[in-house]
Specification:
Length: 286
């Protein structure tokens, strides 16, 4: 870990729930980023697998080795039942200029932060995210293609390279139609007070709260996409996404579509693609 002599400070929020097997590797990844972090906030949502004890020991060692690094921990005695509540808790504690919500069970390449933080030289950029790989709980690839291509199955003629665009443009191309962002561990946000307000509504979703959150933030400025696969997203057999029915997914997709239609200036093409996607989901549900 280099000395934190960079002007842009970063808080890494590490939400955890029963991921004791990943804690050491994930914290090592954060500490060894080529761009230094200023603060780490570790949240545990009432794990029962020894995670708290593991975290306490690692934090003790980190404070001895890196006395300049600010570290906060919050251990819930009762499970919150909502991942977005944990995001909000971490964001409220963060004191840096930028925020990386790095789920404990995901992984990142050493240059993840270094690559993404550059995009914020454009002061209008409100969040940046990278391409991802998709693996299972044993680190085996789940698909041959990278996750961006999997998420973009419904996209028409989108650039394969890195880019920076206005939030409005990104909405019309894809983000208002479906959640094209791989997962939150791939994203770095500019720290602003409005994030907490957006998460209050996101808590009302089971699956699509992250998508709703990205839309709200994107509307405030520009977003940057890095085509390099710097994030590794891990899917578990018992994940919320796998447990939740197609019916619930369809209903929440409709809710996000309704919000976007009401609040943003969307093109007729985007509206047509919304209808097409809902028809596909309805067909699968039935």
């Amino acid at each position: 870990m280099r000395g934190a002599d960079n002007k842009k400070t970063v808080t890494v929020i590490l939400p955890n729930y029963n991921y004791v097997k990943y804690i050491d590797d994930r914290i090592d990844e954060i500490i060894n980023q080529t761009y230094p972090v200023s603060e780490i906030v570790i949240l545990d949502d009432a794990s029962d697998d020894g995670s708290v004890q593991k975290i306490e020991q690692r934090v003790k060692n980190l404070r001895a080795e890196y006395p300049e690094l600010k570290i906060q921990t919050v251990f819930n005695k009762k499970n919150s039942g909502n991942v977005f509540s944990q995001w909000a808790k971490g964001i409220n504690l963060a004191t840096s200029d930028y925020i990386w919500i790095a789920e404990m069970d995901d992984s990142a390449k050493p240059k993840f932060l270094e690559k993404l933080i550059r995009s914020f030289d454009d002061e209008d950029v409100v969040f940046a995210y990278s391409n991802s790989k998709l693996v299972n709980q044993n680190n085996k690839p789940l698909v041959r293609e990278n996750l961006r291509k999997v998420k973009d199955f419904f996209r028409k003629k989108h650039s394969c390279g890195s880019y920076t665009v206005s939030g409005q443009k990104e909405m019309n191309k894809n983000l208002a139609i479906y959640n094209s962002i791989p997962n939150v561990s791939a994203v770095v946000f500019k720290n602003r007070s409005v994030l907490d307000d957006y998460l209050k509504e996101a808590k009302k979703y089971v699956l699509c709260g992250d998508w709703y959150f990205y839309l709200r933030v994107a509307n405030e400025g520009k977003i940057h996409y890095c085509s390099k696969k710097l994030n590794i997203h891990r899917i578990h057999e018992k994940s919320v996404t796998k447990r939740t029915s197609l019916r619930e997914r369809f209903k929440e997709t409709q809710r996000v579509h309704e919000y976007a239609l009401k609040n943003y200036n969307l093109s007729e093409k985007a509206k047509k693609r919304m209808i097409q996607l809902e028809a596909k989901l309805a067909e699968k549900w039935h």
